[in-house]
Amino acid sequence: MGVNGAGIAAAALAIAIPAACVSIPASIAVARRTDFLDRPREYRRHAVATPLLGGAAVLCAVLVAAATLGAISGRWAVALGCAAALWALGTLDDRVVVAPKWRLLAEAGVGVALFAAGLRFRTGLGGDVDLLATVTWVIVLVNAFNLMDNLDGACAAVTLTCAVGLGTLAALTHDRDATVIAFALAGAAGAFLRWNLSSPSRQFLGDGGSMTIGMLVAVLGLAVTDHAGASAPLGACLLAGLPLLDAALVSVSRYRRGVPLVTGGRDHLSHRLLGALGSPRRVALALCLAQSGLSAVGVACERIGAGAVISGSAVVLIAGALAVVTLDSARWRPAGIATTDVLRIPSMRPVPRALALAVGITTAEVPRVPSLRPVPRPLAVAAQAEAE
Fold first, then answer.
1. What is the number of structural domains in the chain?
2. Nearest 5°: phi and psi at 139?
3. How many Å apart are CA 122 and CA 130, to the nearest integer?
């Protein structure tokens, strides 16, 4: 990183961190005054009702830094406008339930808007492929960060390290505006950890925060890999690898258990690490270190060239697949999460409660079994105790 890039990064941090330290307490006060609280329920096991609107504070800090350093212009005006739109949608979802289809449509619309503004993948395979790759990237990453927001500190810690990696590459490629946005996001996320990792946590990001952060990381990935070739999406994936790993782990685990992906649960990467490390702070540190390694690989490969990106991505993909298999094993499985195989029951009748409990499934989880469809059948009965 050159002297100029380092100076821009330092300036963005110097503005974003104090801005976040002002906006976070203010957003907590607003959340308490308006009863915008996340109350313990179902799989959410925090001890007390906790203020939301953390996303508003993070976005505010990023906007203040961007405006102060002149990074709100042209395509970045579109990007930050899209971030504000997803913040509004996510915040609405924190208050009332927004159907997943509307969220997906909004995310796809953001992808199209970014593509039109020039923030896109350039695969060299034609405009339609570039558009599809760009929209898919935005949708996947927004939802990956949304899934990552499942334990105190997890999403903010990963955001911090992703943003530093993306900002470093932006500075090396002399993209001033991307450098400002990336390090402003890093500073805001780092400041948020002070409140989010307190015991008990004093504020949550909420969907308004995780969706906004996911979108900002996605657009930064588009900006810093702005070169021709199919390697661009692969390079972007390296720079945001940990949320993608968590999404893959959850998808595989829930598919094996017959649980819909859109449901909440304590089966994420962070929950599995929590069982081994014992505290959210240690988990946040482990996630930071892991994503730092991925970001370093991503930056190095991008600087070397397309061949290095492809080779590095192949190695990381193999390592990620092995990690998913390992983390979904009995050793890393959180309490109440059982490994499954496939049982076919040719019946449309409800599963008898005695049979369901015998295999560790409650009748509420599997009310009816469609004909000849795979039904999860745990090899252990750990879920039975929790169900009772």
1. 2
2. -60, -45
3. 6
